[in-house]
Write a structure and sequence with these properties.
two-stranded antiparallel ribbon; Aminopeptidase; 276 residues; 16% strand; binds zinc ion; alpha/beta
């Protein structure tokens, strides 16, 4: 779950009017016509931010494993994979300390890295009101099998909103193409203060303006909830090589396309309205 600690402030009244996303027109041709790489992968820096810290590990899974462990494992896997693909400048960002100070620490570090893209890796849970109890390995534990799926968040306060949306949409489509369904519950009133506007119903991209790691960073940025670890079945899937491979393949493909679409020549030709 996107806990209160990772937002700048919380508002109970979240406007849900669907605003028109500014999708660059070049996405579809790029997806349907594979072309030789236009970007210099060796110079394109992706930062994989491991959500939460050892001291403040985020959500606890249905089987009592801290979210941080899931985030770190997946981010390390993605890092290796991107480096294999030629993205040699990929950075795995691990932050320590208490929850809230760690957010500002990670933003400061990312902004000093000359990064082209930030992906903050998380795993999802549900609000406390939806939790149910069960016993796991002799210990009272909590779960909710009601919802499942990944989700992608962008902040409209990020200075590169258009590019953030572009990457979020690319990633969402790649996940969808591999048979993965995004979490739909964020539009529902039952989510209370976590209710969000769905800005791309096809790709599963939600708007979450106040996330510090998205709004404070000076490059395109998305927060990726890779799957639910409070759902007992999906927690097991998130531990499986098959699921990790699907996520990895999706992210690799999305980063490659994003890099191509971010190349200086293409941006000059298509025009770049990255800021707002
Ligand atoms: Zn998290």
């Amino acid at each position: 779950m996107l806990t209160a600690s990772i937002v700048a402030s919380l508002s109970l009244a979240v406007p849900l009017g669907i605003s028109k996303p500014a999708w660059p027109k070049e996405i579809e041709p790029a997806r349907s016509e594979p072309k030789p790489s236009k970007c210099d992968r060796s110079q394109f820096r992706v930062v994989l931010d491991v959500g939460h810290t050892i001291d403040a590990p985020g959500a606890i899974s249905a089987r009592n494993v801290p979210e941080y462990d899931f985030n770190l494992r997946l981010a390390k896997y993605l890092e290796r994979s991107l480096i294999e693909d030629g993205f040699a400048k990929t950075v795995l960002l691990v932050t320590g300390g208490r929850a809230r100070p760690s957010l500002f620490k990670r933003v400061a570090r990312v902004n000093g890295l000359s990064a082209n893209l930030l992906v903050s890796i998380h795993h999802d849970s549900v609000p406390d009101s939806l939790m149910e109890s069960w016993e796991f390995e002799g210990k009272e534990s909590h779960f909710s099998d009601r919802f499942r799926g990944h989700s992608i968040f962008v902040s409209y306060d990020n200075p590169h909103l258009d590019r953030s949306l572009l990457f979020g949409r690319l990633l969402g489509k790649e996940l969808k193409d591999r048979g993965l369904q995004y979490a739909r519950q964020y539009t529902q009133p039952i989510m209370g203060r976590y209710q969000r506007e769905l800005v791309d119903p096809g790709a599963g991209v939600y708007r979450y303006d106040k996330l510090i790691v998205l709004k404070g960073t000076q490059m395109p940025a998305v927060l990726f909830e890779a799957g639910s670890i409070i759902n007992r079945e999906e927690e097991l899937e998130m531990n499986s090589a098959e699921r990790l491979d699907l996520i990895n393949a999706s992210l690799r493909a999305a980063v490659k396309m994003f890099c191509n679409l971010s190349s200086p020549t293409l941006r000059a030709r298509t025009g770049n309205s990255a800021t707002r």
